[in-house]
Amino acid sequence: GYYGDFGGAFIPEMLYPNVEELRSHYLDIIGETSFQEEFQALLRDYVGRPTPLYFAKRLSEKYGTKIYLKREDLCHTGAHKVNNTIGQILLAQRLGKKRIIAETGAGQHGVATATVCALMGIECIVYMGAVDIERQAPNVARMKMLGAKVVPATSGSKTLKDATNEAIRDWINNPVDTHYIIGSVVGPHPYPDMVARFQAIISKETKKQLLEKEGREDPDYVIACVGGGSNAAGMYYHYLDNPKVKIIAVEAAGKGVSSGESAATTALGKEGIIHGSKTLLMQTGDGQITEPYSISAGLDYPGIGPMHAHLYRSGRAQFVSVTDEAAMQAGIEVSKLEGIIPAIETSHAFAIFDQMDFKEDDVLVFNLSGRGDKDLQTYIDYFGL
Ligand SMILES: CC/C=C(/N=C/c1c(COP(=O)(O)O)cnc(C)c1O)C(=O)O
């Protein structure tokens, strides 16, 4: 379960049975024909896949290059997170689990977990930082409507990291009947690999769609925002072994990388262990986790998935970070040029144009990871709309 120097499962003794049960069964279960048939049928008939690969005409004209958008915002629940929760709920059922827990920051993973628990009739508890409960209120309401119990995390910065700590604490106390649906490519092996496999449908579809539209499977660039890195993992997955496809990963600089209020993990992080995984994370000299900051709850995380730590260290991906201000401006620009209001997380990806030079005949694919409904109040307050 390693990506170069990164990955592994550095977990407390009490979690070992749960994680070991997952590690020893997940590949066999995912590989079963009956699993794949159910998984693919739900992605098609319930999530609404394949999601469109849309040529963004006005955005392309503005930036003088060819821009395609992979529309994960059109998945049921409004973001890519549901691709993973469908896979993990089927796995949990096959492992005989009766109770589901999850962490959430932006609330999209929380909604996606509550959704599949409603679908399957399984109890659902979602841990969410008290700060995020405020700034993603629409998603809290949706989780409750879907029958989930939302438990505030009030420690630390009261954001995603703290919600994850609370979920892990719950799992340690409920090891036998509970499955923890982790929402990104983070945590102990096998989670980073398992979540990436469930999200890989994104680039699988993109290859086929780009062949139809451009007569080639491979774009020149694939671009995605990175919190833990799951939407990015899905966008990159089937292009990783093709060096002709350049990979751009966009992190949240918050108020600026050197402002002390940032979540740009590859710029500010050092090797360490967070939530059971050896990866890069923002930390003090004595290894305490530094509180991150981003205007977007989904990128407001001090770590990064081990896959992305490796992509960064190996140079396979180019990592850039953009500030709150740049992301918010990009969000309103995409809204006005394409009629699509992106989630603030996704808006970070669209804010790279002043740091990158693209050629007129370059083909770019952006992963539009989610829609902006959850963020309307933030957009309205920010721009005084
Ligand atoms: C699992 C914690 C992250 C959450 N969301 C992260 C997120 C992200 C960043 O998460 P990754 O794709 O895993 O890097 C990007 N786009 C949207 C629309 C998101 O909601 C959540 O709780 O919903």
Give an overview in words.
The chain has 385 residues and is an alpha/beta fold. It has a six-stranded mixed β-sheet, with helices on both faces. A four-stranded parallel β-sheet has the order 7-6-5-8, with helices on both faces. Helix 2 packs antiparallel against helix 4 (81-94). 43% of the residues lie in helices and 19% in strands. The protein is built from 16 helices and 14 strands. The model has no long low-confidence stretch (mean pLDDT 97). The ligand CC/C=C(/N=C/c1c(COP(=O)(O)O)cnc(C)c1O)C(=O)O is lined by residues 79, 81, 104-110, 160, 183-184, 225-232, 298-299, 343, 345-346, 369-370.
Secondary structure elements and their pairing?
Elements: E1 2-3, E2 6-7, H1 16-31, H2 33-47, E3 53-55, H3 57-63, E4 66-71, H4 81-94, E5 99-104, H5 108-120, E6 123-129, H6 130-135, H7 137-145, E7 149-153, H8 160-173, E8 178-181, H9 191-199, H10 201-214, E9 221-225, H11 230-236, E10 246-254, H12 265-268, E11 270-274, E12 277-281, H13 306-314, E13 317-323, H14 324-338, H15 344-349, E14 363-368, H16 376-383
Parallel strand pairs: 4-14, 5-6, 5-8, 6-7, 9-10, 9-14, 10-13
Antiparallel strand pairs: 1-2, 3-4, 11-12
Helix pairs in contact: 2-4, 4-5, 4-9, 5-7, 9-11, 10-11
This protein binds the ligand CC/C=C(/N=C/c1c(COP(=O)(O)O)cnc(C)c1O)C(=O)O.
Ligand FEV is lined by residues 79, 81, 104-110, 160, 183-184, 225-232, 298-299, 343, 345-346, 369-370.
